[in-house]
Design a protein that fits this description.
This protein is α+β, with helices and mostly antiparallel strands and 416 residues long. It has one domain (8-99, 129-383): T-fold. Helix content is 26%, strand content 18%. The strands form three sheets. It has an eight-stranded antiparallel β-sheet, with helices on one face. 55% of the residues are buried.
Length: 416
């Protein structure tokens, strides 16, 4: 337990979870015990399927069989094949303590299985299938407008780069979803056993719960409950004080949001784009994780001289990105260049909203912000974000606060 006595910290290799549950003492204790049981061996299970997890996702199916691996695949496959395709970034930390940290305990190759993944049957194994997408996220026909705005092949990039995503793009969110599912199942089992003694339950075993995996967060809200969330725009500048947050907003159970994730070149992951941070709200943490990857990669100025890139393999030999060039530095950009890069990301985020894959996104680059999705419009009021510029910027809003923080959870930041 962490010193506050409320939150539980679980860490194994690159997985770094902070979890918290709200409910009766017995339900909370059962949730934490279930989380610890599920966490045991979780990384080993992922390592056993690592070659397949590092391979490009294919819409026609997968050999992945583990529940977390299948969560990962199911989150990224909407972005593979004929869908809007921008690239991928692994949410495995590029470095821990300044050194390469591959997502494995050994380099031993494990043969891929021959089974095709399939969704879990109702009532089946926790974590085998994603949560149902809320009706408010229901897919609508895409105008296709985003497709021609996707980044063009530029320095070190190829057409394959623009169509490449692996299940690793959703690993952090999928792990958070899996642990949250275990927490809810554990609390329900405990309350169910107590209910047989006391009569039928009149409330949810846990009113609220979350699993925060390095900033990618799976959320549970019982009917009538709410979470306050804080947003930052620079993951490399973690907020140590809630007053330093760029914005705060609330989500309720009625919103159907079960996941928040952030991606960008300044975070702990590799990115093909130049966004400082892109935070996405979605039905699951894995879905948010994959979408944040896609949108962050779309915020780009291919071939720009001020952008420093390097092959992912040179930085992390076993990266799933191979020789694809990831962003290592972004120099001075003009206002027009910032606007153009964000416009490309906004187009992709809006397309994902239209397709029902996300509820909203906040995109940040060099002090400028764009917000997509009706659920995030209250950021305009609470964060002092200015209206769109009269010069005809992309749909969204522009933040003028260059030095404030604005989109994404800092590690260790507590939900309220």
């Amino acid at each position: 337990m962490l010193p506050d006595g409320r939150r539980l910290h679980l860490q194994d290799g690159p997985i770094d979870l902070v979890i918290e549950a709200f409910g009766s003492p017995a339900a909370v204790q059962a949730a934490y015990a279930a989380a610890m049981r599920r966490f045991d061996g979780l990384l080993d299970g992922l390592c056993a399927e690592l070659p397949a997890l590092r391979s490009a996702a294919r819409p026609e199916g997968t050999a992945l069989v583990g529940p977390v691996a299948r969560r990962m695949y199911e989150a990224v496959v909407p972005h593979a094949g004929g869908m809007a395709k921008v690239g991928a970034t692994t949410d495995v930390p590029a470095s821990l303590g300044g050194e390469a940290a591959p997502f494995s305990r050994s380099r031993e190759k494990v043969p891929e299985g021959r089974m095709r993944a399939r969704p879990a049957e109702p009532g089946g194994e926790a974590g085998a299938s994603p949560r149902r997408v809320p009706a408010r996220f229901a897919p609508r026909p895409s105008s296709g407008a985003a497709r021609h705005l996707l980044p063009r092949a530029g320095e070190g990039e190829t057409a394959d780069t623009a169509a490449f995503i692996t299940p690793m793009a959703a690993v952090a969110g999928a792990v958070a979803d899996e642990i949250l599912a275990a927490m809810l199942a554990g609390a329900a089992a405990e309350e169910g056993a107590r209910g047989r003694e006391r009569g039928p339950l009149t409330h949810a075993p846990l009113s609220r719960a979350y699993a925060n995996n390095g900033g990618d967060i799976a959320l549970h809200l019982a009917p009538g409950e709410r979470f306050a969330i804080g947003l930052v725009d620079r993951p490399d500048r973690p907020s140590l004080d809630a007053t330093a947050l760029f914005a705060r907003t609330q989500i309720s159970a009625d919103d159907g949001i079960g996941g928040i994730a952030t991606s960008g070149w300044r975070g702990r992951s590799f990115s093909l784009g130049i966004a400082d941070a892109v935070t996405v709200l979605a039905a699951t943490a894995a879905a948010a994780d994959a979408a944040a990857t896609i949108v962050a990669n779309a915020v780009d100025l291919p071939g720009h001289a001020a952008i420093v890139r390097a092959p992912a393999r040179d930085l992390q030999p076993d990266s799933d990105l191979g020789d694809r060039r990831v962003t290592r530095g972004v120099g001075a950009l003009t206002a027009g260049e910032i606007d153009a890069a964000l416009a490309a990301g906004v187009a992709v985020a809006e397309d994902l909203c239209r397709r029902g894959l996300i509820a909203g996104a906040a995109l940040h680059l060099a002090g400028a912000t764009r917000v997509v999705g009706a659920r995030l419009t209250d950021l305009v009021e609470h964060a002092g974000i200015a209206p769109p510029s009269p010069s005809g910027g992309p749909v969204g809003v522009t933040a003028l606060a260059r030095d404030r923080v604005s989109a994404g959870f800092s590690e260790g930041e507590r939900l309220e």
